[in-house]
Every structure is written in structure tokens, then in C-alpha cells.
Specification:
Blueprint: E1 6-9, E2 12-15, E3 17-19, H1 22-25, H2 32-41, H3 45-57, E4 62-65, H4 72-83, E5 88-91, H5 101-104, H6 108-120, E6 125-126, H7 130-133, E7 137-138, E8 143-144, H8 147-156, E9 160-161, E10 163-164, H9 168-177, E11 184-187, H10 199-208, E12 213-216, H11 226-234, E13 242-245, H12 250-265
Parallel strand pairs: 3-13, 4-5, 5-6, 6-9, 10-11, 11-12, 12-13
Antiparallel strand pairs: 1-2, 7-8
Helix pairs in contact: 3-4, 3-12, 11-12
Length: 285
Amino acid sequence: MDAFPRTEIGGRSVSRLIIGTNWFLGFSHCTPAKDAYIHQHVRDRKTIADILEVFFREGVDTVVGLIQFEPLHDAIRDAEDRTGVGCTIISTPAFPISPATPAQGFELAEVEPILAREAELGTHICMPHQSTTDPLIDRCTREMRRGDELCRMIRDHGMIPGLSTHMPEAIVYADETGLDVATYIALYNAMGFLMQLEVDWVARIIHEAQKPVLTIKPMAAGQIRPFQALTFVWNTIRDQDMVSVGTMSPREAAEAVELSRSILANRRAGLELQETRSKASVKRT
């Protein structure tokens, strides 16, 4: 099998297809019932490791998400042991903020243990979650307040800083102010799910970004079928950008990889199509 296409973040090689983790941990963005299903059937160390193993063997060796959340970090180690593949970890921890944070800065006593734990778990790229990033985006001054402070602390712990955001302004302002980040996370899907601007506007922001962009929610949390979703995203981002996908089974992981390979190579995917009775009349005999 050929290596999966790769790009770089801050000098570190990563696969352009990134393993998303919401479907591992119970964040369906759909219903409490679906969240409960994930908790009961997917959020298990062995189940997650089985899925990761499929990705790793296909050259998709980069994971993004809340790495401190058990059982994810243990499952990553298990999949590494099974395959001999070293995983690049992109973590999105949240850091406590308060009304005083913009003026007074972060509480070091609160931030330090989080960063120390990230380093202990082997995080390579640390991207503060949007729950930290976005409240500090200032549209008046066109900056992320205290962003330099947080990025410096990430560097001090031996990790590459990035910026996870749901606000398109964050990418623009970080570029304008020269914020010390190596990559951005951006919501991007064909239906505009969770996106704060129209899809074509976000596409322009991605194309003009000074750093590689990791796009998330390509399937709009399951509301767009994989073929349509991945065809759109892979064909409207740059060669240095990335796509994160979440799956709930090893077979789904294999399908996501093959579908992505076929789109990038401009060929038909070597996948079986799902069967229903209504397809009988169009099948060739």
C-alpha cells in the first residue's frame, strides 16, 4: 500500500487524513441517545484501538482530540504496539478562563498541570480548544488576547502550538498579529454545519491562511454521506491542508481511508456500495 499523502505542521510530518475522536468519546453532535450509544458500544479501550489499528496500517498516523480523556490515550498506545507505528498526537485541551483573563492573564497554577499532563501523554501539537480560544478573540483589536502567553507556555513544555477555533476571525487575526502557531483548526463542510460564515467565505479564509489548516466536521456529524462530504472537502482545500474524520468501527475507518485515497487520486473508490431493494432495477446483469 502506498503511503497516505502527508503534510507538515511546524516541521513535523503528519498524515493529511487525521483521525477524529468525537465518535470514540461520545460527542455525536446529534442526540443524547446517540451519545449514549457511543458510550455503550465504542468508548472502550479495545474498540478504539481496533479502529486506530486500521488507520495506522494505512499510513494515517495522526490523531486529534481530547487526549487526556480516557480511554483514548491508552488505546493509542495499544495500537502503536500492535502496528509498530508511532502516532502523532494533536491535542485540544481546554484551559480555565474567567472575566479577568483578558486583562490579567491565565492562572499559571491552573494551566501548568494541564500542560504537564499533555507533555507526559506525548502530545506533539497542542491546540487550545475553541472554548478557550474563541472567548479571547477580540474583534475590536483584531487579536487573540493572551494568545502569545499561552503559545509561549506550550512551547516551554516542548510542544508545537496551534489554534483550535470555530471563529473564522481567529485565523485571520492570528495571521495578522504573527501569533506563534503552526496550524489552525477550522470547521468546514458542504452544508455549513456549525460554521459562522458561508462556506465559500470559509473556503477563502482557508486558502489565504499562512499556516496549514486542519478542517473538521467534513460530514457534518453524520448529516452528509461520506462520498459527498469527502469529495467536497478534499477538492476545495490546499495540498498542505488536512481533513479530520471520525468513525465508529474498523470497517468505517477502512472505507474513509479508501474513499479519501480515491478522491485524491481522481479514481473510483474500490468499495462496495450499500444494498437496498430499490437498487435492483439499476444493477447491471
